[in-house]
Fold this sequence. Notes:
2 copies of one chain form a homodimer.
Chain A (H helix, E strand, L loop, with lengths): L6 H5 L5 E3 L8 H9 L4 E4 L5 H14 L4 E6 L8 H10 L1 H6 L18 H7 L6 E5 L5 H9 L3 E6 L2 H9 L4 E5 L5 E2 L14 H11 L4 E4 L5 H9 L4 E4 L13 H8 L6 E4 L7 E4 L2 H6 L13 H13 L22 H13 L4
Parallel strand pairs in A: 1-9, 2-3, 3-4, 4-5, 5-6, 6-8, 8-9
Antiparallel strand pairs in A: 7-11, 10-11
Helix pairs in contact in A: 2-3, 10-14
Amino acid sequence: MNNGMRAQDLFGIDLPILQAPMAGAQDAAMALAVSEAGGLGALPCAMLSAEALQKQLAWLTARTSKPYNLNFFCHTSPAVDEQKELAWRASLAAYFREFNIDPMQIPEGPGRQPFNHEVADLVEPFRPPVVSFHFGLPAADLLARVKGWGSLVMASATTVEEARWLEAHGADVIIAQGVEAGGHRGLFLDTDINTQVGTFALLPQVVRAVKVPVVAAGGIADAAGIRAALQLGAVAAQLGTAFLLCDESLITPLHRAALQQPAGEVTALTNLFTGRPARGIVNRLMREQGPMTRRVPEFPLATTAITALRKAAESQGSSDFSPLWAGQNVTGCREISAAALTRLLAEALSATEE
Amino acid sequence: MNNGMRAQDLFGIDLPILQAPMAGAQDAAMALAVSEAGGLGALPCAMLSAEALQKQLAWLTARTSKPYNLNFFCHTSPAVDEQKELAWRASLAAYFREFNIDPMQIPEGPGRQPFNHEVADLVEPFRPPVVSFHFGLPAADLLARVKGWGSLVMASATTVEEARWLEAHGADVIIAQGVEAGGHRGLFLDTDINTQVGTFALLPQVVRAVKVPVVAAGGIADAAGIRAALQLGAVAAQLGTAFLLCDESLITPLHRAALQQPAGEVTALTNLFTGRPARGIVNRLMREQGPMTRRVPEFPLATTAITALRKAAESQGSSDFSPLWAGQNVTGCREISAAALTRLLAEALSATEE
């Protein structure tokens, strides 16, 4: 089981707890809080400009000598398909009329840059203890740079096949991301969400299939969940949703409210917001247009059209068009600091209960 | 956690192990083997004629005094929608041509009768220790009869909302059926499979939401899985897939072979075979027509057209049109007797490992 490895030895942290990187929902402040409390904090970098990344990294490393995790996406940036983009905007026409938006005058949405050599140049001097990737791994030369400067490399697998691929291509640690997880699915070999696997089935099968340590993600909300994940062979558990109501979370008040309403327990995988399947609380756009559709432009281009609607709706106090990312278990959310939440989890873990 | 209840006290069995009822895949022989070995064996009754049910029950009760579980479906039998049936057969026309089948001359498929008073009349003299239901609960008067003669009543919940509903309507025990589970989803309140929940998230939330004991199902294949389920608050774990290769299993050689091939680890929810979403190994029909479609006749009417194709294909050694029911974790399957598998699980459970 977990190859005799402990999170303490693998990551140099006190607790078997990783904070999931959540692009758009948090910055280095949350990473700092979790790392200082004994977990592995994470800084999501996919939506940061070079300048912002430099600033966040400098801020974080000036404040802690504890290990932390830098997370990057490694998708292939697609070319714009004008036909598809126009058809997509046409299919959203009624919404644009509702908010008096000219669909031909929409500014580009927030970009999501894949990891590349320019980003690597910027990161290298910091030699981050852990670097993690979503949507596979970067090209071999890029990955070699990251490993060369000493970072431990983690990557997400959503199937046993992806786990085997990641190990074969150089991942040091594999995150078994069960279908319960909030935000973007890390899938990269098969894009069919119908075959995505729940944590209870995925985790032990990945542990059997690979020799590298495995981190569990998806549906884990508390100490009992962490213990169950360790029981199934994980070296540590990665929690994201549980941190969404913490003081350091940067999600909107509308997103916070959605997480605390009874409807917050109903989520689905949707590709409407970015072009890739991601789990969020079911809202009007998902009910009316999906939650999955083939009409959507490729990731991350889909973001543009929806962001215009999102901004207009949010300005009227509505989250009908907002990506309300959340996993399938919101019961671990607490309106306290991320440090306090990490300590609470640690206390519950060390309590001798069975 | 699990309200202080133990499987031993609740069911009168030695082990926290329930064998999942698998209609079409097993009969009383498997129930007997598991019950005699200290678990709770189950007899699936949904596809049995009155005569067969009587015979199976007499056979089982003559051979054991241990507790067992009788499982029934409680769907509403739909009226045939001629239009839909014709359109469905038309959309399968190429397959019918491939196998030289006249789509207008297909005998009716295997029926699935919901639990009713006639069945209750037949069951009552046996006073089965446990009766479980899939797709909700039967009408109040029927449920009152079952509880009145002393059976413990279990029912499957696929969402927290369904668990609350089942408790409010009289279920004594709730099975939290995570999306990993093989065979038919028990869903009955919301038919949207996009919002179905993984075991890791569903189980602890159901345990929090209801006061009755909760059994975990979905993705559990071995002792570590059972322990993890208990850790998350379950009073016991229900395993189905793990028993599919046992000597007592009645699945076809083609189904057995599919479970043992690498592709056997890739399953999806599909409504193509019966009209209701159920998890099976991905095969040609699922790849080409779904796995989910709105064109399919209502459960269980969809069975008729597909059964004709299934029989023709199977006679040629192909499982392209067979429902290859399986959960997302086939690693627990063993080609031994169900009694031996139950004892193996018991031994691994009692071993002092952590």
